[in-house]
Amino acid sequence: MIGIETLKQLNMARIYTLGRLKKSIEEAWDIQPSGFNNTIRWNAGHILVSMEMLAQKAVGDYVPVHSEWFPFFVTGSSPGGWGENVPANEELLAALKEQPARVMAALEGNLSNVLAEPMAIGPMHTMETAEAVVQFAVWHEGIHAGIIHGLNSVTAE
Fold first, then answer.
1. How far is it, in rounded angstroms, from Cα 30 to Cα 147?
2. SS3 assignment, position 52
3. Predicted structure pTM score
4. Over 121-154, what HEC string results?
5. Partners of residue 114 on adjacent β-strands
């Protein structure tokens, strides 16, 4: 079946991310150590929001959830600019846990779809199919899960 391995990778990336977040001490979620651009909370929310946005790019009729959280976690945002109503740890964890099943259901049978408009990441990479966008999402999540791992190491001291 086309893309089944891609969907397995999506699930595997999320399991890894949730494992890193489980190791995070609650008090560390909002610490921004020197040398880091953001916090554990921002990275967790960024993973969630990015997946929602990429799923919509991959499947045009996908309706993102928690769009009210987007301003907190989109690329270019920062905890320094947050006001009130930032999602709590438990809210982010619950949303991250339920997201893969919902996204995979929307993607099933649609991975070979050609995007209405190709998606470019920098000048050298253009994605033209839903599956390519999902593969990018998996790679992107891995990067931010690694940052969470690094933040865990620094904030546990």
1. 14
2. helix
3. 0.95
4. ECCCEEEEEHHHHHHHHHHHHHHHHHHHHHHHHH
5. 129
pLDDT category of residue 157 using cuts at 50, 70 and 90: low
Sign, CA dihedral 104-107-112-114, equals negative
| Continuous segment of H or E residues that includes residue 94 | helix 89-107
Nearest to 150 by CA among 1, 32, 14, 51: 32
Q: Which of 76, 32, 28, 31 is nearest to 50 (CA)?
A: 76
For the record, the structure tokens of 156 come out as 């546990």
Confidence band for 149, pLDDT divided at 50, 70 and 90 = very high
Taking the mean position of all CA atoms in its chain, how far away is CA 136?
A: 11
Structure tokens at 79: 């905890």
Q: pLDDT tens across 87-135, in order?
A: 999 999 999 999 999 999 999 999 999 999 999 988 878 999 999 999 9
